[in-house]
Amino acid sequence: MGLMNYLRNRAGVIIVVFIGFAIFAFLLGDVINYGTPFWARHQNQVGSINGESIDINEFNAQVDQTSEMFRQQMGGGTLSPQMRSWAVQQVWGQYLNRELLKREVERIGLAVGRTELNDLVQGDNPAMQIQQAFRNPQTGQFDRAQLTSFISQVGTLPQGHEAHGQWEALLQNVIDERLSAKYTNLINNSIYITSLEATEEYNQRNKLANFEYVLLDYDSVADSAVTVTEQDYKEYYNENKGVFKNPEETRSLEFVVFDASPTAQDTARVRTTIDELKAQLAESTTDSLFAAVNSDTKYPYIFRKQGEFTPALDTLVFNAPLGTVVGPVLSNGRFEIAKIVETKVGPDSVKASHILLNPATEGGTDRAKAKADSIKGLIEKGESFAALAVQFSVDEGSKINGGELGTFGRGQMVPAFENAAFDARKGDVVIATSQFGIHIVKVEDQIGSSRVVKAAIIDKQINSGRETMDAAYSKANQFFGALRSNNFQETATQQGLSVLKANDITAMETMLSGTEVPRELVRWAFEADKGDVTDKVYESDTKYIVARVTDIHKKGQLPLEAVKSDIESVVRNRVKAKKLIAQATEAANGATSLAQIGQKLGKTPTLAENIVFANPVIPGVAQENAVVGTVFGLQPKQPSKPIRGSQGVYIVEVTGFVNPAAPTDLSAQKRQMTQSLAQRTWSLAFRALQDKADIEDNRARFF
Question: Which residues contact 668 (CB under 8 A, 6 or more apart)?
């Protein structure tokens, strides 16, 4: 009973505690389920711009599209991490451009109307992005029929189809580009150059100064002869404080690279393999199959004209008799061999139409072929190919145009289709079977004529062998195992290793001082503390890397200590300048000419001729803004006071000016200045918008 009374009396407290525990358990469950604390609400955001979040899935889809575009531009090869990084950077730039511009155009009321957008898409002069997206690959020109066909097809597809998303993204890019142009034009139209500005610019570029100078070089004072104080650093830092602002957080690293690139032994090993394959290919009776099985690159088994093989193979292939195996040749880090299987003279390109049948919906391949024969018979009797294509073809991309495929060269179609189209004659209707189905192909035209060769090609990449990789990893692991908190340089020296440095890298870097590194190494660096050594040996394709964080520079104003080593030489020269200015002032005391001052200093004045204010370079010395600026404010034949320059302390004396003829018409000068300023307006405006924006960049978490 005592226990029951206790529970009754404390029921309220117990319930409150229980509810509190339940809430905590719920939140804890949220933590467990999502893998991040409940206060981390943006784990799926790649960033945000002025409060507009960017979802990683949407961002990644655009990166994939951009990466694929880069890959196609490179000829379909493998995309390097560096190229992938550029794609990420380009997509991020597009988001920045769009969101920063969005707020501005809404604020001032800019828009793209429906009629205007229609004109940008289907008008007489479509937007450049439309023209690029619907370009004929053969001619390189905008293909309006292809655009019309695509729009018609999109209209018949259900919402949510991939094509809808691609089309909407393209339209949004067209709108963004148009709004950007309007905004830029609005700014450009506000530019005005006065006659006074034009005259001053004209004089700065055309007025000539001739002067003599005496230079007391900073190198004439030994570093040990001056003492640089903390106050010297502070003075320079405070005078140039605006320069020391970090736009984003950076890290500095020291690192050691252990190279596992292929050795001479690796090259010899691959050469032996390719030689063996050459002998086997020569005896093979199934050339295409043998090549497909044994080649690192699966080359299409098609006819090629001269210039379409790799340069190393091209001449050999076209000069060898049938049945010959040529090579091996070395090309881009791989050995190649080729067996000449067939040669003939054929067209360079073909214009064709087709009707595509799907065996799966026709009841099997045999029935599809029988139907294709029937359709071919109708065409040969005079039936309209275009009408039959609209009726029977399952290729939605071409049937709307009566089956037309346009003009294409060798290597643009699948081999079975290409062979049928190029082997037939103009006007022929032939049937071909490919992985897409059964094609009824009509050859509308054949253009050009060249000798072509069909060859079975085998290549073998020269890769690092296990022995090479193991040797490099062993050295890297030995170095890594000997590291402690502060012995990175010491250990490297003991083991005869070179330590490289990479200063102020950003979170999205893929290179350290010219060395390509894995992204996970850079991500580690931005999670580590100053002095931390990598948590493991990081590996790239042919390198092992061990690194240490040497410095961290946060975003924003950098403190003096963070830039001290960078400004040390400049500050030391300023201290030397004080010493040299005192020396020059003493020599100038009582002197009436530069020659007298030079005599006291043991220096012969040097003549500088035809110097203009707009290009403040002293020939044979350096760019000296302060010196040349002083020259244009002096009267002739009067020595200047000592001037602190970039290379030393100067005393100058103007011998004369050559004034240009007064401009008769300033309109050309105004126009040139306006154009020059207009070219920079968008970048300047974008920088200003970016500086004012609230930007959160989380890309480094995901890429």
Answer: none
Please name the helix (run of DSSP H) or strand (run of DSSP E) that holds residue 257, with its range, or none.
Answer: strand 250-259
Side-chain-facing half-sphere of 166: CA atoms under 13 Å: 14
Q: Which residues pair with 458 in a beta bridge?
A: 337
DSSP, collapsed to helix, strand or coil, labels residue 220 as: helix
In contact, 105 and 84? CB cutoff 8 Å:
no
| Predicted local distance difference test score (pLDDT) of residue 361 | 85
Q: Report DSSP state, residue 656.
A: E
Of 540, 506, 499, nearest to 525 (Cα)? 506
- Asked whether 503 and 74 are in contact (CB, 8 A), the reply is no
pLDDT, position 542: 87
- Model confidence pTM above 0.85: no
Task: Please answer whether residues 376 and 497 qualify as being in contact, where contact means their C-beta atoms are separated by less than 8 angstroms.
Answer: no
Q: Which two tokens stand for residue 315?
A: 């001449």
DSSP reduced 3-state for 460: strand
Give me the residue label for tokens 């089956």. 403
The pLDDT, as a whole number, for residue 221 is 95
- How is the chain split among helix, strand and coil, in percent rounded to 5? 50, 20, 30
| pLDDT for res 161 | 67
Give 646's DSSP letter.
S
**CB contact set of 548 (below 8 Å; sequence gap of 6+):** 253, 254, 255, 483, 488, 531, 532, 533, 534
State phi, psi for 553 to the nearest 5 degrees: -115, 110
Spans of the chain below 50 pLDDT: 1-41
Residue 613 neighbours by CB under 8 Å, 6+ apart: 203, 204, 205, 207, 209, 628, 629, 632
pLDDT for position 31: 38
Q: What is the pLDDT of residues 312-354, one digit of tens each?
A: 898 898 888 899 999 899 988 899 999 999 888 888 888 999 9
∠ at Cα 81 (76, 85), nearest 5°?
105
d(C-alpha 493, C-alpha 487), whole Å = 10
Look at residue 160 in the predicted model and tell me its pLDDT: 63
d(CA 506, CA 508): 5
User: How far is it, in rounded angstroms, from Cα 216 to Cα 601?
Assistant: 9
Cα dihedral angle (384, 387, 390, 393), rounded to 10 degrees? -30
How far, in Å, are 292, 355, 372, 434 from residue 366 at the CA level? Answer: 28, 17, 10, 14
- Residue 164: per-residue pLDDT: 72
Q: What is the pLDDT of residues 141-162, one digit of tens each?
A: 788 887 887 787 766 666 666 6
Triad 629, 634, 638: Cα angle to 5°: 135
* CA 433-438-439 angle, 5° bins: 90
Chain length of the chain: 703
Per-residue burial over 367-396, b = 16 or more CB atoms within 10 Å of its CB, e = otherwise: ebbebbeebbebbeeeeebbebbeebbebe
Beta bridge partners of 453: 304, 343
Instruction: Name residue 323's beta-bridge partners.
Output: none
Bond prior to 328 in cis (omega within 30° of 0): yes
Q: Are the C-beta atoms of 548 and 254 separated by less than 8 Å?
A: yes
Across-strand partners of 443?
Answer: 352
The helix (run of H) or strand (run of E) holding residue 622 is strand 622-623
The per-residue DSSP string of 36-102 comes to S-TT-TTTTEEEEETTEEEEHHHHHHHHHHHHHHHHHHTTS-PPPHHHHHHHHHHHHHHHHHHHHHH
Three-state SS across 85-114? HHHHHHHHHHHHHHHHHHHHHHHHCCCCCH
